[in-house]
Amino acid sequence: MASQAPGHPERRDIKLSERLEAFLRQIVESLAWTSNSPLWEELQTNEGRLPPCQQVMPSTLLEEPQQNYVYPEVNMVLVDHSYSIQRNPSSSLQLFTCKVYTLMGEHLRELCRALQLSDELRGKIWTCFEHSLVHCTDLMVDRHLHQLLLCSIYIIAKVSSVEILFKNITSCYSSCLAADMNVWKNVLISRGDGENQSHGNHSLTPTTPSSHHPGKELRGNLIGFYNQVYLARMSPFAMQFKPIAGMETPVSSPYPRQRKKASHRQRLSSKYSIYISPYNRATPSPGSPIFSYTTNSSSRERLKELNNLLRRYTQPREEDEDEPLVRRPRWGGRSLHQQQLRDVENDRLAAAQK
């Protein structure tokens, strides 16, 4: 592990935590699904399938848990909410699967918010996504969880008559999750083993062609994967969500509750108790009005006000003739406030250079 500046333990801990979290996400999203991953041996203990969300997550971590829900089967068999603990998967598989559903639930929530999709449609997308993991688990071999998640958004939007383009989905995906474009531009389509099958239902198919790299593996963009692989496997299940007069659509699977993210404070200097914390709208303001500036939101005029406010502490102030002079503590020719701000600035510059 690379060591950080010893004078900034809080900053070091935050950066280390962020790096570990990013590495964990990479494992859950893609590394664990490579063809040589031990995950596939672990799945053999569960009939080669990933357990459904309700089987690995307690009801307290699910939104509005119901007594019965639609188990992700094509024949839509209702399954009782109480599931025998003896039939649960191994503890390691259960922990991994719980992380998968928790993380993907957060990502889908962000994407649906950016795409302005309703909670009802989000529930249908989630049910479709869960079905692909539970009953088409082999679709994940050498692929990325987000590839199936984005395809689920598109196919459910199509059958629900919600107009949305694949490029809009990938654009929101890129901006919301700061994603690597290879996730949708370099997707495994076939290994030359006949994985991709022809299909006759073109009503849900995008029209953008897919390119591929030469060799045994056929790779292309996400639309190519959707057309040639995903659609044939998932269309029968997704079509059950198509609104038909006189018929009810399936009940959505339980959805993971939104986690409350920890509010990490970052100390700016080892000498002074000055912190930066994430803004929380729910936190009540102090009794007296305070100045606030929100990054990427507040206006330029607000930024100018902030700069002018800071200059009051960083530049000598000309005393008003009518005001009594106030003797301030001095430090090497500077006021105490000026020295404190200069120390904070020096600390941050030193930390950035290490």
From TrEMBL:
One GO term describing the cellular component: nucleus
Regions of compositional bias (Basic residues) in chain numbering: 257-268
Domain (Cyclin-like): residue spans on this chain: 106-190
Coiled coil regions in record: none
InterPro entries: Cyclin-like_dom, Cyclin-like_sf, RB_B, RB_fam
Disordered: annotated span: 195-214, 248-268, 313-354
Gene Ontology molecular function, alphabetical: RNA polymerase II transcription regulatory region sequence-specific DNA binding
Chain intervals with Polar residues compositional bias: 195-211
GO BP terms, alphabetized: cell differentiation; negative regulation of G1/S transition of mitotic cell cycle; regulation of transcription by RNA polymerase II
PANTHER family: RE32990P-RELATED, RETINOBLASTOMA-ASSOCIATED PROTEIN RB -RELATED
Protein name in the entry: Cyclin-like domain-containing protein
Source species: Takifugu bimaculatus
